[in-house]
């Protein structure tokens, strides 16, 4: 039997569930094929204010608010005793969201999936894509359930929201090498037992290694007394190290006095995971009968927590183009989806590259800081990378380079 629907979506992560909800809200039928059974672990726990706009657009805000996730209202950057704080209340972008959440992704993704189902999205958990053939007139997909049984689908369009699964990039040979350095991350969840009076639970803490500026740590607090703790370093840094991931993580933690103090009573009760070479890129984001959402398209780097925001923006742009296409209107996926998405991704790219070449760190830790410029940078850190009125968006690279030069010369 072949089941037919308007839109097939691969993956029920944030981009898949939100794209499904947006399309169902506009009256289209959607089936989401998700390999795993939810709730399931995922990395990517610190959201940006910008993504709240899209959660709201999809009508899912109440579902997320009801989860009582940890409020997030800014970011603290720390380096060898220096600290620099960005408050999302102090932004350049007009009418911007000033708060968002730090989320346990198993719960966040599950809440989004349930909210999508409530809107009529048909999510089939435990179905893994075996083959997918997109085409201008019709898309065909075969998925296997956990018992190995094949399920056949046909649709008018296919959205690949498979994240690091990268289903269509693999099947259609769209993967190209990322320009970014091959990095590795170690991470875990801890019972944090933080008592430090100077520590602000409403902010993500990014700590730069005292001697290696390309190594950094994240501390993302949750609302249940637990935290996500992770380290990012060039993969070659770990080469030849014989220690297990937990010993490595703890050894690197011991190299930062402030983090060590904050986490002095922490209980390490969860196995340390690792992921390497996560930066990804494709030769094209869309083609006949398909488009790539979120990480299935491009993933830069975790440093500015941009992943979920880009995933949701891609869902919003794609749902809008697809709605018009399904109503019979002429659309241009490159002009209306790939290029507008890339504009914001490229701003994050400038920030990521400048972080690792040190120039953005010079800016972030400079003292004194110009209040107006800081507000512009804060809006980028809040995810407002599609706000062209911000000079650090419209002319990101020259602006960051010029400012870094000023900071060095100061
Ligand atoms: C170390 C690290 C830290 C990060 N930290 C952050 C952060 O703090 N904030 C942030 O915003 N982002 C962060 N990210 C990025 C974030 O993880 C992703 O950008 C985000 O999850 C992308 O969402 P998505 O919807 O595209 O894909 P995903 O969330 O990956 O969802 C994809 C779904 O597709 C399913 N799937 C995969 N293959 C198949 C298949 N063959 N068939 C059917 N289903 C399939 C998967 O099971 C999954 O449920 C981080 C990434 C890394 C590597």
General description of the model:
With 410 residues, the chain is of the alpha/beta class. Helices cover 36% and strands 25% of the residues. It has 15 helices and 19 strands. It has helices spanning 14-25, 50-57, 61-65, 105-118, 167-171, 235-238, 245-253, 257-262, 294-297, 307-326, 333-356, 359-364, 371-381, 391-394, 396-409, and strands at 2-10, 30-34, 70-72, 74-79, 82-87, 100-102, 122-125, 127-133, 139-145, 150-160, 175-176, 183-191, 203-208, 216-221, 226-234, 273-276, 281-282, 286-287, 290-292. Strands 1, 2, 7, 8, 9, 10, 18 and 19 form an eight-stranded mixed beta sheet that branches. A seven-stranded mixed beta sheet has the order 5-4-13-14-15-12-16, with helices on both faces. Helix 2 packs parallel to helix 10 (307-326). The N and C termini lie far apart (70 Å). The mean pLDDT is 96. The structure holds flavin-adenine dinucleotide.
Q: Which short descriptors sum up this protein?
A:
globular, 410 residues, 8-stranded mixed beta sheet, binds flavin-adenine dinucleotide, 7-stranded mixed beta sheet, alpha/beta, single chain
């Amino acid at each position: 039997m072949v089941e037919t629907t308007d839109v097939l979506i691969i993956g029920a992560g944030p981009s898949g569930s939100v794209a499904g909800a947006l399309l169902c809200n506009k009256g289209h039928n959607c089936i989401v094929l998700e390999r795993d059974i939810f709730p399931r672990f995922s990395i990517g726990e610190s959201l940006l204010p910008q993504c709240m706009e899209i959660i709201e657009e999809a009508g899912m805000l109440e579902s997320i608010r009801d989860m009582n996730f940890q409020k997030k209202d800014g970011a603290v950057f720390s380096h060898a005793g220096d600290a620099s704080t960005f408050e999302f209340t102090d932004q350049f972008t007009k009418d911007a969201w000033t708060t968002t959440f730090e989320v346990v992704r198993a719960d966040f993704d599950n809440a989004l999936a349930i909210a999508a189902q409530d809107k009529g999205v048909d999510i089939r958990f435990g179905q893994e894509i075996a083959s997918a053939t997109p085409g201008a007139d019709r898309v065909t997909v075969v998925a296997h359930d956990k018992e190995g049984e094949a399920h056949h689908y046909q649709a008018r369009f296919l959205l690949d929201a498979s994240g690091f699964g990268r289903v269509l990039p693999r099947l259609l040979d769209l993967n190209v090498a990322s320009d970014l350095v091959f990095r590795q991350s170690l991470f875990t969840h801890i019972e944090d037992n933080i008592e430090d009076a100077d520590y602000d639970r409403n902010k993500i803490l990014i700590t730069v290694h005292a001697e290696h500026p390309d190594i950094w740590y994240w501390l993302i607090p949750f609302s249940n007394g637990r935290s996500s703790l992770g380290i990012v370093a060039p993969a070659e840094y770990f080469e030849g190290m014989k220690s297990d991931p937990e010993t490595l993580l703890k050894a690197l933690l011991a190299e930062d006095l402030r983090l060590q103090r904050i986490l002095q009573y922490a209980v390490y009760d969860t196995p340390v995971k690792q992921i390497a070479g996560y930066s990804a890129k494709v030769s094209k984001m869309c083609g006949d009968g398909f488009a790539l959402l979120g990480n299935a398209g491009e993933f830069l780097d975790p440093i500015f927590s941009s992943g979920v925001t880009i995933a949701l923006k891609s869902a919003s742009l794609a749902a809008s183009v697809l709605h018009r296409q399904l109503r019979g209107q002429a659309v241009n996926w490159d002009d209306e989806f790939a290029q507008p998405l890339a504009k914001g991704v490229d701003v994050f790219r400038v920030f990521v590259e400048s972080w690792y070449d040190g120039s953005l760190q010079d800016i972030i830790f400079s003292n004194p800081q110009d209040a107006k410029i800081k507000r512009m940078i804060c809006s980028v850190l809040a995810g407002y990378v599609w706000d062209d009125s911000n000079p650090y968006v419209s002319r990101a690279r020259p602006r960051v380079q010029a400012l870094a030069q000023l900071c060095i010369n100061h």
